[in-house]
Known about the structure:
- Strands 1, 2, 3, 4, 5 and 6 form a six-stranded parallel sheet that branches.
- The chain has 265 residues and is α/β, with parallel strands linked by helices.
- The chain has seven helices and six strands, in the order H-E-H-H-E-E-H-E-H-E-H-E-H.
- It has two domains: 1-36; 37-259, SGNH hydrolase (Rossmann fold), CATH 3.40.50.
- It is globular.
Amino acid sequence: MKSKTLLTLVASFLLPLAATHAVEAAPSSAEEKNSAKPLRILCVGDSITAGYTDNPIWNVPFEFGYRQGLFERLQKAGYQFQFVGDSPEPWDGRFGVPKNSPSPDLRAIGQDRHEGHGGWNTAQVLQHIDQWIAKSQPDIVLLMIGINDAGRPPTAENLKGIVEKIVAARAQAHVVVAQITPLLKFTQSIADYNTSIRDTLVPAFQQRGCKVSSVDQYRNMLKPDGTIDPGLFSNKINHPNATAYDRMAQTWFEEIQAIFPSVKK
């Protein structure tokens, strides 16, 4: 009888301990689940973010611009990610519908998501960035806008306002501001705009502790001697060709790797 009583007491003591350890294990599982959430990437900009080539002719194949190359690099590197945004371009036909069938087709796998809008400038993006951020809840924003301001010149104050709205609405998100690509013909206002991004705008936000950095997309349209390469334009005006878009994808990818080195599958 004493033996049974002792076993009963031991069992009654061990059961609560087992239950306690089971409860303690649950948060670990939840943490693992949270860490597996996909990286939400919001690409913001104009026709170059959408990926236009020589529209409305579309003899130069459409391959989602830099977004395709970025998708492939992130996937190969093992990232779990989701492009976000609601722009319908270029499939809405506003500037003609692409003739080719892109491969891979990002639409088929739910990754043709972005906020690239053909012909838009900094003022237009400034008007809409609040709602885009609120809806997409990005972890990182790839922002490249200003080429359609050329000649006005590109408005640095508008760009500052865009970044201000992003960091105010989603302080935990990283904002990568691109020094924009050139026009076929050298434009001093674009060079000045890019200098202000690199030397003034981004450092000012960083000094405030904001998660803001910059990449140089201008250099991806240059020859080795530093002059603009006409062979990298699809429309001989402003849109990159496949080679240039792929260079841009690599630039974005390297920055994402630097910011999120361990967000993997």
